[in-house]
Design brief:
The radius of gyration is 25 Å and the shape is elongated. The protein has helices spanning about 10-25, 25-55, 65-75. It has a domain at about 5-55. By secondary structure, it is mainly α. The protein contains 3 helices and no strands.
């Protein structure tokens, strides 16, 4: 685990301390959990963005096989 130093406002520190006390967790645990959630959310948004950018990238290609015909053939077997 790596140590990192951050600055919090007085309000943030007080609120975190209150949440930690109520939940029985340490402030550091709360911060790590919040960072994990942020990373997960950012990763999900990044994946969604990449999928949106990739949607339809082959629609105007003329050098690809006829996938509809191939699919019909696969469905027959």
């Amino acid at each position: 685990m790596a140590r990192i130093q951050i600055y919090l406002t007085d309000r943030q520190r007080e609120d975190l301390a209150a949440i930690a006390k109520a939940s029985g967790m340490k402030v550091g645990e709360l911060i790590r959990e919040a960072v994990d959630r942020f990373i997960h959310q950012a990763g999900s948004q990044r994946r969604e963005s990449i999928l949106q950018e990739a949607a339809g990238i082959w629609k105007d290609r003329t050098d690809l096989p006829d996938f509809r015909a191939a699919r019909i053939e696969w469905d027959r077997n």
